[in-house]
Amino acid sequence: MSAGDRWRRPATGPELRGKKNNDSTSEALLGLTSEPGPGQEVPTIVSLPCGVLSHIFDDLGPRDLASASCVCRSWRRLVALEAAANQVWRSFYSARWQLSGAHWSLRPQHNSGNSTSGCSSAISRIAISASRPISVPGGSRRSDGGDGSAACTSGTSGSGSSPSSSAFTPASSPEMRWQWAYGTKMLRLRSWSGRYSAEQVVGHKMAVRAVRLLPTCDLMATASLDRTVRLWDLRSGLPLGHSRAHGGIVRCLALDPGLLASGSSDSLVRVWQPRPPPEGALAAAGGAAAAMPLFHISSKPYILRGHSGPVSCLALGESLAATEVCGGGSEAYGGTLFSGSWDCTVRVWRQGCDSDGGGGSGGDDDVGGVLSDASGGGTAAAAAGSSGDERSSLSAVAASGGGGSGSRRRRADEAPEAEDGGWSCAGVLQYSDWVYCCAVRGSNLLVAAGSEVVVTDAATGRAVRRYQGLHDGGAVACLEGCRSGRLLFTASGDGLLLAHDLRMKQGSRVLWHHNAAVTGLAFEDPWLASASADGCIMLQDSEQALAGGGSPQRALNANCRALHCPAGQPALCLDLADQWLAAGTESGTVRLWDFTGAAAAAERAAASRAARSVAKASRAAARQQHHHQNQNQRTQQPPPPPPPLPQPQLPPPVQRHRQRRGRQQPVDQPQPQVPQAPVLAGEAQGFAQAVDPLAAAWAAGPHGPKGVGGPWAEASPSPAASSQAAAGEPSPSSSRRSGRAGGGSGGGSSDRWRHGQPQPQHPAAFQRARGPRPPPPMAPTFRYVGSGAGGSGGGAGSGMATISGPSSQQRTPRPQRP
Amino acid sequence: MNAKLTLTSNDGQKFEVEKEVALQSQMIKGMLEDIQSAASVPLANVNGQTLAKVVEYCKFHYEATKKGDTQKTKAAIKKWDKAFLNVEQSVLFDLILAANYLHVESLLQLTCQAAAKLICNKTTQEIRDMFNIENDLTAEDEAQLLSEIEWKFE
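^ Those are the sequences you sent over. The predicted structure of the assembly is below.
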């Protein structure tokens, strides 16, 4: 519904129709003719005009739209390539993920490391504009609809002549194709159920209290009890620098391509913003500019004063976070920063809006009275100012209730630009208890104040919904929410991870019950990660978990995995972004789980599966051929000597095994020759004679000679797979091993492996597996085992145990008839 | 105010409706603003069968909105709409075209939703089969497209 708003607006109606007229020739070619005349043939969906078709597509979700986009060319154009359609896909994307997170696609790969220019150009290339005040998705969409569509029109008109070819290469087009971005993101999400490698970065001297990831700029920021903020290169894990010591421990961080903010217990919020690179450096070369980090963390930050207690949480107004942030460094940051504190308030900060801020009217006691009344009510009623205009009331409150007019005056005395960089407090939201956690999700500001969770409209500051006594009255330690505004997750010291339906269609449900207090939550639709004080980090697909009904999950699987921090280093904080999961631990190390290899691993697994099936088919064909040969030989007396085989001798255990097996079978074909027989016959005639008929009888099976293919087909894929795996082809076996080893709860690829786990059931297959070839070499992927779950974790333990599984099974065959 | 208006379809069928009912069509409304005294409106793009349905829809909704905006009437309207849309595909698309031409916003929305429901939860091939759409994509393009929507297949 909301997605379709743009199409339904009257302004776009004529645009679509006008477009249709312009392209009428091409559309006629594409079969999209104009409205059928009177008395024409029975109308079908093809005969509908474009504008009407897009009306229909308005009511479809991403999945159905994706189906529709492949139906035919005209639909393709309408669903995926049109400017309006692109905006719809963009809104699909933004309803689930941060828009700036999609910039991975545009980032130049060659200088991916911390490049200011790369990042800023990537962002500026995307035509996103937004309204100045706080993010209201509807509002911002409406406002950027105009220029967005204008930009798109140029983009699509370029590709309009050949919509099938040029438009398919998203990298080449300057315009972000949001359908492609959406699809890519969906594919990337699969990494979370795949394999990972775990690393740790060491640098902080004390417990790490906050961690934030910014994969688009390859950054990780950490904050610690040692009073510093550190920046890391996400890919290499190398430190990029650290801040000057704060006045207290640093409890929270906010990170964005345009801003890095820290909140510390000295009640100050510090903000670093990217500086514009010097003109010379920019002109010199991309490589030179790439060497400059995005944030000068060691430089003096802007300081935001106002709180009277330790700052406990920071949140960024998201849909603005992706906007013109990196453009010129001189421009103000477009977004809004929310800071929650133990002084029971959340402050709203904006940069560069002093003109309408409360600077001039500071110290108005009357409005201050309003604020204190509101706070006495214990509600987020800061916006309950008398005037209906929420912005003016917010700024009025800010002007008066600014925590201490002293600080404001002091700041006025010093040069404000030097100190606060144009940041000013645009509003104060009062709560009834210490604010532990806040987050902006979609249009909502989620605030955990003591045991209460308040869902606040981020634009107006009005409380939309309240939850009380969620965790038996315990304080809500952390919360997360879904950007579509549908779900809210809370966790607390009682170890419960709850999911609440904000639309009140369903009651609260338990997603997981940790054994210890939950210390961190992170969410990337639909994956939810929760860290608890016992060192366990749960990573689960909230969609799947909630689809299952009321009861919490018990079993670990690909949609619900456990990662582990080493003993004594429980995670205190958590962040989840793109394909990385980071956790700051009590010992000061930051553990980083890198899922970027998951897709490649899955690809390798798929490739090896394909190779195996091909090999299996060819082997079956070869056996069939052999069998025919044998039959021919039987008719001819005496049989000619068959060609020598690679395996000169059968190991005794196998032979015994084959004998035993052979005896169990009804021997109705005493004479057929198996290919291996003559080789043996050359060395030990009598023994071979004793063996061969039995083996051949086995091979012939109960179904007679024609059944050679029979048992094979029935036993598939196990014998083929196992023999293939041991036959010296490195990739299948290594991927199997590491697939089984990777992650305690397995992954997408490893799961498939588990189902089709190779068991040497067929003696002949086993015999082949015991060939003289060396065991398969360890593939590089094997290192995942070592780094997989970091030593003491259960995942690593079980992984190690299963590694030896296949090979030991090969050595000790279990007779299993198919 | 109870002036009557005669709508004539392209196959000559005449429908006499109250002016208020006909005014739900933005197109007729605009036309009447131009020609105040018109008593008959020829509709060249709508056949009689479809126009009958449209008139039926407009009449019902005119009566329903006159009754007031209560919970009960809303449910009744919903029920009626559902029964109203229980038609064949060709009739549905006829209705969409007519609603688009006559500019009856609510009917257009309703019918489009019904059409969207037809598309919902179908594979690409199923959609093609259902609507007899010719696949004019080249094999190369199709492979590319399928890889693009690979995420859909879990």
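Chain A touches chain B through 47 residues (CB under 8 Å). DSSP finds 29 helices and 28 strands in chain A.

Shout if you want it in another format.
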